[in-house]
Specification:
This protein has 110 residues and is mainly β. It has one domain. It contains 2 helices and 9 strands; from the N terminus they run E-E-E-E-H-H-E-E-E-E-E. It is globular.
Length: 110
């Protein structure tokens, strides 16, 4: 069994400090986390496919995306979608925040 929740963008160090929400929230959710019971304090994460999340992620490319995402080169100017190639792994910290442990691998789609 797994637990799905959503988070906004992380800080520059790859830490999500905001509140998790159980459902996608337009304009606030950017990342989808899936925590399996067997993972304990670990969760897989990816960029949400919804258009508002994609827009926020594209704006964040030069600010915080490099702290949580691995990608080759730069996104073309006409990029419309950031596609998850391989989910990342985040670890829950003692203060309740989540910190990237393995970056999500993404590709850019025009």
């Amino acid at each position: 069994m797994s637990h799905v929740f959503y988070m906004s963008e992380p800080d520059l160090f790859g830490v999500w400090k905001g509140e998790a929400t159980p459902e996608f929230t337009e304009g606030a959710s950017v990342f989808k986390f899936t925590q399996a019971t067997s993972y304990g304090t670990l969760a897989e994460f990816s960029i949400c496919e919804e258009s508002s999340a994609q827009r926020t992620a594209l704006v964040g490319l030069r600010r915080w995306m490099s702290s949580v995402c691995s990608f080759e080169g730069f996104a073309p100017a006409n990029t419309r979608v950031i596609s998850t190639v391989k989910p990342g792994i985040a670890e829950k910290q003692a203060d309740g925040s989540w910190k990237v442990k393995e970056q999500v691998v993404v590709d850019f789609v025009v």
